[in-house]
């Protein structure tokens, strides 16, 4: 899953980036509202963590412009302590959740997981497809109750497919969601990761839809 992190305070941004990447997310960053708006308007993200107090262009304006342009990615806003008016304005502008500074990294991660689940129509933190289970809280994958060891990229591909059960996902879409903007993206590597996953999982769980992409579906 690919996130956009928008925070102008360097130390906090570095701490958030480290925590999000440790949790398995691909992270793009911006330290001002102008760059944040551009990234959110031109790139594809599964969620955004957006500070409202930004230079150049404030976070509330950025959020309003995204929503006015039809950008629907889940947005978690960060607000200053006791600024209840910021929370109300943010929610009214289209934010999906808010977090008040200071906060614990574990709470931010839990809120991001919940936003991504809701956006993909998932209610439980444990995603299931036939005998396969992926716990989004721990990153643990099991098949028939037995642990499955995956590389970071294999996990990212599986995580994205599991969040979109039954939907056809193209190679280019997968590429957009498992690599950051500045990474040398190669959609051909997706075939390699899917091939490796099929060797570690029941192969029929990941279907190839000829000419379109892949679909995660439990056997009938």
UniProtKB/TrEMBL annotation:
<dbReference type="GO" id="GO:0000976">
    <property type="term" value="F:transcription cis-regulatory region binding"/>
</dbReference>
<feature type="modified residue" description="4-aspartylphosphate">
    <location>
        <position position="51"/>
    </location>
</feature>
<dbReference type="InterPro" id="IPR036388">
    <property type="entry name" value="WH-like_DNA-bd_sf"/>
</dbReference>
<dbReference type="InterPro" id="IPR039420">
    <property type="entry name" value="WalR-like"/>
</dbReference>
<feature type="DNA-binding region" description="OmpR/PhoB-type">
    <location>
        <begin position="124"/>
        <end position="218"/>
    </location>
</feature>
<feature type="domain" description="Response regulatory">
    <location>
        <begin position="2"/>
        <end position="116"/>
    </location>
</feature>
<dbReference type="Pfam" id="PF00486">
    <property type="entry name" value="Trans_reg_C"/>
</dbReference>
<dbReference type="GO" id="GO:0000156">
    <property type="term" value="F:phosphorelay response regulator activity"/>
</dbReference>
<protein>
    <submittedName>
        <fullName>Transcriptional regulatory protein PhoP</fullName>
    </submittedName>
</protein>
<dbReference type="GO" id="GO:0006355">
    <property type="term" value="P:regulation of DNA-templated transcription"/>
</dbReference>
<dbReference type="Pfam" id="PF00072">
    <property type="entry name" value="Response_reg"/>
</dbReference>
<dbReference type="InterPro" id="IPR011006">
    <property type="entry name" value="CheY-like_superfamily"/>
</dbReference>
<feature type="domain" description="OmpR/PhoB-type">
    <location>
        <begin position="124"/>
        <end position="218"/>
    </location>
</feature>
<dbReference type="InterPro" id="IPR001789">
    <property type="entry name" value="Sig_transdc_resp-reg_receiver"/>
</dbReference>
<dbReference type="GO" id="GO:0005829">
    <property type="term" value="C:cytosol"/>
</dbReference>
<keyword id="KW-0597">Phosphoprotein</keyword>
<dbReference type="GO" id="GO:0032993">
    <property type="term" value="C:protein-DNA complex"/>
</dbReference>
<keyword id="KW-0805">Transcription regulation</keyword>
<keyword id="KW-0902">Two-component regulatory system</keyword>
<keyword id="KW-0804">Transcription</keyword>
<dbReference type="InterPro" id="IPR001867">
    <property type="entry name" value="OmpR/PhoB-type_DNA-bd"/>
</dbReference>
<keyword id="KW-0238">DNA-binding</keyword>
């Amino acid at each position: 899953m690919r996130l956009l992190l928008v925070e102008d305070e360097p130390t906090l941004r570095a701490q958030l980036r480290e925590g999000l990447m440790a949790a398995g997310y691909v992270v793009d960053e911006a330290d001002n509202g102008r760059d944040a708006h551009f990234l959110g308007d031109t790139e594809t993200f599964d969620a955004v963590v957006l500070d409202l107090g930004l230079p150049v262009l404030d976070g509330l304006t950025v959020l309003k412009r995204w929503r006015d342009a039809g950008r629907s990615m889940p947005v978690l806003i960060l607000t200053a302590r006791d600024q209840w008016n910021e929370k109300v304005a943010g929610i009214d502008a289209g934010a999906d959740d808010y977090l008040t500074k200071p906060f614990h990294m574990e709470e931010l991660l839990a809120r991001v997981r919940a936003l991504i689940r809701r956006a993909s129509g998932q209610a439980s933190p444990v995603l299931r497809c036939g005998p396969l289970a992926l716990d989004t809280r721990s990153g643990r994958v099991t098949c028939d109750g037995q642990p499955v060891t995956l590389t970071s990229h294999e996990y990212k591909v599986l995580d994205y497919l599991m969040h979109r059960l039954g939907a056809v996902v193209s190679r280019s879409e997968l590429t957009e969601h498992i690599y950051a903007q500045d990474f040398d993206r190669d959609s051909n590597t997706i075939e390699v990761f899917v091939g490796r996953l099929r060797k570690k999982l029941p192969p029929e769980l990941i279907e190839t839809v000829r000419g379109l992409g892949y679909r995660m579906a439990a056997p009938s």
